[in-house]
Prior knowledge:
This protein is 44% helix and 30% strand. By secondary structure, it is an alpha+beta fold. It has a five-stranded antiparallel beta sheet with strand order 3-2-1-4-5.
Amino acid sequence: xxxxxxxxxxxxxxxxxxxxxxxxxxxxxxxxxxxxxxxxxxxxxxxxxxxxxxxxxxxxxxxxxxxxxxxxxxxxxxxxxxxxxxxxxxxxxxxxxxxxxxxxxxxxxxxxxxxxxxxxxxxxxxxxxxxxxxxxxxxxxxxxxxxxxxxxxxxxxxx
Length: 159
């Protein structure tokens, strides 16, 4: 009886985690990125660039460029982070992040899509991006395993 309850609990946890990953890491960013196709565009100037780092799994360190941009919409001036909805670039060494920064130096003019309802929100990438499909697939797999485990527990209770 205890084993069945543990399997049932494990199935529920997989199901919930699967839904969470599918929606928050896959579907929501995918829909946001896709909706940005229709956002207006403007030219923005890169005003500052620096590198942040965070500890990944094990000894892995993730280096990310932090790029601040400035753009005008009408009479208003906006400062915001240079965003990519499919994920922040993460490099495992400083050489790669510096190459990214060299392509995006201070003073460079870039084209951004901005949200007309919240002009501080912007993105450089729009549409469907392949990196967004991994969380969708992973979340779906967790969900299916959770349903399968709960189904097997219910099926065994009937016997």
